TrEMBL record:
Source organism of this protein record: Actinopolymorpha cephalotaxi
Name of the protein in question: GAF domain-containing protein
Keyword RNA-binding: no
Single GO molecular function: RNA binding
InterPro entries: ANTAR, CheY-like_superfamily, GAF, GAF-like_dom_sf, GAF_ANTAR, WH-like_DNA-bd_sf
Length: 235
């Protein structure tokens, strides 16, 4: 087998292993950690990887990273609002900065990154349907470390990551909704037994407590379950 064939086989095995880990992940955070670990090990030229997440009101933060310096480099980008990961989240799908010391696109971030030991970066937007999730970022400690192959392999990782993060978020939302429904049902049962009410009447009691006290229905149910006390509708 020639070198190119061996590299192709190695990447195929790497992607297969990544998919196994993503299927086994039980949360968004474990999904992110699997992605950055695999990306740092597989993308040619990369010595570290991280994921920047887009939050409310345009805020961006680092949700997962394979090295401590990644957080510091990302922090400089967020504060300056300049750099490959910020550009991938805000403007374009892929951003390559192969020589940060001399890149005119990042006049403030470039020197800051170099001072932290990062000479090149490659960032990919993460998105699901029309929603921008964040970016997958790769870091190198030497200029021109990233090649066309780096871009191709990184793009595949970004596509996998986008789908996996969206799936993890949906699963967590469904799990949270099921937990809420279960707690409310349990609290309704307690109120029914305590006050000899029907299920509809007991649910109305919970709803009125929630409205009058300006507390979420789930919080009312949680209090009833774990204290055994049914709050008054009004103080």
């Amino acid at each position: 087998m020639n070198a190119q064939g061996f590299e192709g086989e190695r990447l195929a095995l790497g992607f297969a292993h990544l998919m196994e880990e993503l299927w086994a992940a039980d949360s968004e955070q474990s999904t992110l950690l699997s992605v950055v670990k695999a990306a740092a090990a597989s993308v040619p030229g990369a010595v570290a990887a991280g994921v920047s997440m887009r939050r409310a009101r345009g805020r961006i933060d680092t949700a997962a990273a394979t090295a401590r310096f990644v957080t510091e480099v990302d922090k400089a980008q967020y504060e300056l609002r300049e750099g490959p990961c910020v550009a991938s989240v805000d403007d374009s799908l892929v951003n390559l900065a192969n020589d940060l010391a001399n890149d005119p696109h990042w006049p403030r971030f470039g020197p800051a990154a170099v001072s932290l030991g990062v000479a090149a970066m490659l960032s990919f937007r993460l998105s699901a349907r029309s929603e921008v999730i964040g970016s997958l970022n790769l870091y190198a400690n030497r200029p021109f470390a990233f090649t066309g192959q780096s871009r191709a392999v990184g793009g595949i990782f970004a596509a996998h990551a986008s789908v996996a993060i969206a799936a993890a978020r949906r699963a967590e939302t469904l799990t949270e909704a099921l937990k809420t429904r279960t707690e409310i049902s349990e609290a309704v049962g307690i109120v029914m037994e305590r006050h000899h009410l029907t299920s509809q009447e007991a649910f109305e009691v919970l709803r009125r407590i929630s409205q009058h006290r300006n507390v979420k229905l789930r919080e009312v149910a949680h209090r009833i379950i774990y204290t055994g006390e049914v709050p008054r509708e009004r103080d």
